[in-house]
Structure prediction request, 272 residues.
Amino acid sequence: MSRIFLLIVCLIAFTSCRTPKDISYFQGIEHLTEEQRAAMNRKYNPRICIDDVLIINVTSPDRETVAPFSPPPYGYYLPSESEIGISATTQNLFTYLVDENGFINFPVLGRINVVGKTINETIRMIEGMVREMAPQAVVNVQIVNFKVGIFGEVKTANMYTIKTPRISILDLISMAGDLTIMADRKNVWLLRDNNGEKEQIHMDLTDPAIFASPYYYLQQNDMVYVMPNKAQKRNSRYSNEDNFRISLFSAIVSTLSAITSVILTIRSQNMN
Prediction:
């Protein structure tokens, strides 16, 4: 009887101490196909969305010709700014809000539809318009309210302001301090708003094919939710009292295991 009990205790200890699989990222990355490896090297260009705030700079060696396209520094400011005025980050720069129809109201040129275009496409389009009046004009466009968020089973859930529009899901996880040990790495969800159309994209961080996914690079206002694993879900069902009972039971089992080991050792010595 004591041997059976000891066997049960050993099985419990073995299963509780076993290292869970599916903790490692990118399992089998060495088996990626050539097509997947080629997709990993693709270029990424974010597209302008409704409610984006843009900085558009028009410069030229002949400053007088571009003066009409460079208004005084005033515009739409970020929510984190405490008061209306010229901030350190937007000083001497005019900002443009992409309205609900995808337009900005640009000096001299009037309303311009920019939604769905990449930064480079927008630069080429505005440069083509401006150079009809200022042949040497150079245009620069930047998204200044590029934010992404992550929550769920991560060490630091937060909304992050990104200085560059190129950020991958792994970059965001790194900024959040990595996933917790209770995270389900096979069950990560990307929540995206494409100009009013909601998308929910499932991602598996244990699958190296994620590098070839069109959703590997994030878009402004993306939210990433990391689901808890089965162990964490089971734990959430228990109250504090239940957890105390489980801890007490574990302590009793450990004590009985130690006592059983001592008894078996003594018996073995007596038989010899």
The longest strand covers residues 183-194.
